[in-house]
Design brief:
With 408 residues, the chain is of the alpha/beta class. It folds into 2 domains: 228 residues, FAD/NAD(P)-binding domain, CATH 3.50.50; 170 residues, FAD/NAD(P)-binding domain, CATH 3.50.50.60. Strand 9, helix 4 and strand 10 form a beta-alpha-beta unit. Helix 1 packs parallel to helix 9 and helix 5 packs antiparallel against helix 6. The chain starts with a strand and ends with a helix. It binds flavin-adenine dinucleotide (FAD) and 2-acetamido-2-deoxy-beta-D-glucopyranose (2 copies). The site of one 2-acetamido-2-deoxy-beta-D-glucopyranose has 5 residues, from strand 10.
Length: 408
Amino acid sequence: MGVDDVLVVIVGAGPAGLATAACLNKLSIPNVVLERDDCHGSLWRKRAYDRLKLHLGKDFCNLPHMPFPSDFPTFVPRVSFLRYLDCYVTSFNISIRYNRNVESASFDESDGKWRVVVKDTESNADEVYLSDYLVVASGENSEGYIPYVHGLKGFQGEYMHCNQYINGRDMYGKNVLVVGSGNSGMEIAYDLTNWGANTSMVVRGPVHYFTKEMVYVGMSLLKYFDLQKVDKLMWLMSKLKYGDMSGYGLVRPKEGPFTLKIKGGTTPTIDVGCIRKIKKGLVKVYPTISSIVGKTIEFEDGRNGEFDIIIFATGYRSTVLKWLKDYRLLFNEHGMPKPDYPNHWKGEKGIYCAGFSRRGLEGISFDAKRIADDISLAVKARKIPGGKSSHACTLASNSWRMNELFCS
Ligand SMILES: Cc1cc2nc3c(=O)[nH]c(=O)nc-3n(C[C@H](O)[C@H](O)[C@H](O)COP(=O)(O)OP(=O)(O)OC[C@H]3O[C@@H](n4cnc5c(N)ncnc54)[C@H](O)[C@@H]3O)c2cc1C
Ligand SMILES: *[C@@H]1O[C@H](CO)[C@@H](O)[C@H](O)[C@H]1NC(C)=O
Ligand SMILES: *[C@@H]1O[C@H](CO)[C@@H](O)[C@H](O)[C@H]1NC(C)=O
């Protein structure tokens, strides 16, 4: 069994792990990223649907030290985002060990180090990493979450979480029910109608909906105006564009979108065309499911229908508790950080987390920079020898050549 001593171990090579590694490399702090999959950015590469684009404008989605190239569209498509990540990994010389599933991590009081036990899923060998710092970047979206539904186990159709949905090619003419009215639910329902599926959706509660452009304007205005003003404007824009949709089963929350987002982390839904389909009657809206018998699904308002496929767009869960033994040093029983934003990223005994603030890629950049700076300060204070090379810095300046790299 191999034992490796590294200053910083980062778990997960998604945007959060990569951003943290890049910031550490810039400060010449040795680190290694452990990734269970055979690639980085696996959520975007393998667990996202074809037509996905970044929902937020590119100004709000770049990782630290490397803006998106100027010729990228405002809303970056999935494939371009992956190319950006590839480029990020090369530019910052990020060291990733793939096919490494982190099975446990615990803090050893005797030597003050984190002991990270890893399974190399290719060779099936166990490895141990001893580190002074542990950065959890395994994602809030680690695992699809399907809520309890009475009778779902006996459903005679097929059901899946939306992270398994790629496109609706095989769903032509089928009766499909999408559960959830967040970004994924609305976009998948829209996509399904384009593939010729007879599409319905479950909207479980009040929801805000806007075009991407409205959200982009709103987020930009937040830099200059207070929350209430921007929320009012958002509400007005949505009302003007879509009108009152309550007759179709879509009710707006009483509180404004950005206020809600800040309070509870619920994101307003970005409409890519689904609302128009609902208005045209091409997507039928139902309330919460009350029970399922055979293929018949009954809803809380007493209506029912026969369905072939159910797609749950009902969110994700963190899986931190499955492997992190001493999670209490930072996380609660739900696998989310105990301290509130903006102090969520740091725990005790050298544990940190990146990407757990429900603030998307912008939140990830925020975390990565703070974590790297904090570790750098701690390293200096403890006089642990850091990286001697200056590679990282010279490489970082190369990042400005992104455009060239993309063209080649
Ligand atoms: C469909 C969808 C669309 C989104 N669109 C946007 C958007 O437009 N703008 C925005 O700002 N945000 C968006 N987000 C939110 C967020 O920015 C992304 O989810 C982002 O990928 C999160 O990055 P992450 O690195 O925290 O997590 P992930 O991308 O989930 O990466 C975590 C990595 O950790 C690995 N891992 C997990 N457990 C282990 C383990 N035990 N051992 C080893 N490796 C492990 C995983 O394989 C994965 O590669 C979107 C999210 C989803 C689901
Ligand atoms: C489409 O689905 C709805 C259920 O939402 C159902 O009532 C209707 O009969 C279906 N249409 C066809 C052509 O199957
Ligand atoms: C990249 O990082 C590795 C260590 O992870 C190091 O051995 C190598 O020299 C670095 N390469 C460059 C070009 O900096």
